[in-house]
Amino acid sequence: MAPSADPIPAVPALREEFPPPTHPDRLHVTRSSKAFGSGAYSLIDLPAGALFAKITTATPGKKAYTSVQTGVDTHIELNSDLVFCNHSCAPTLVFDMARMEVRVVDDRPLKKGDALTFFYPSTEWDMDQSFQCTCGANECRGWIAGAKDMTSAVLDEYWLNPHIAGLLNERK
Predict the structure, then answer these.
(1) How far apart are CA 162 and CA 152, in angstroms?
(2) Positions of E strands within 79-121
(3) N or C: which end of the chain has fewer CB within 10 A?
(4) Cα–Cα–Cα angle for 42, 165, 109, rounded to 5 degrees
(5) Could you tell me the mean pLDDT of each successive run of 10 residues in the chain, 172 residues long?
(6) pTM for the whole structure
(7) Which domains does the chain have, with CATH numbers?
(8) CA-based angle 5:8:13, to the nearest 5?
(9) How far does Cα 72 stand from its chain's mean position?
(10) Contacts of 172 (CB under 8 A, 6+ apart)
(11) Cβ-contact 110, 52 below 8 angstroms
């Protein structure tokens, strides 16, 4: 008797599953297989200083490359598509952790298609992972390690969260 030839079951293609978008009316996320290559882009036009989004899905976290510092010793995980907002030395957004909101920078409007970025040292005193900035802005600051490692003169050019301003005052 010949052995039965059971067919080998098909293996489904591996597919990374993503949760549904958290701000589908505000931003589009582009994902990349390249490390730190993903980003968020605006789906709307807003005037300078306008509210972009409230931070409503955050949970307490520890200092990590994905967290945002909210106070001298506190961090949160955003748990939303806002985590895809990258750093820029010429940011389009402000992450105001005292108000738990994201606003358009005060000096220019946000246009549909703009990359959604913020200045990481505006929230981070001493970053979990420093990096060489490649934002391409004329005012690019190069090595980004947090506000602790930047001069007051440079930081005076940016909107800063109260906890960062307080730590700067202590440093003086």
Answers:
(1) 14
(2) 86-87, 93-96, 101-104, 117-118
(3) N
(4) 25
(5) 52 60 93 84 98 97 96 97 97 98 98 98 97 95 97 97 96 84
(6) 0.87
(7) 27-171 (2.170.270.10)
(8) 165
(9) 19
(10) 152
(11) yes
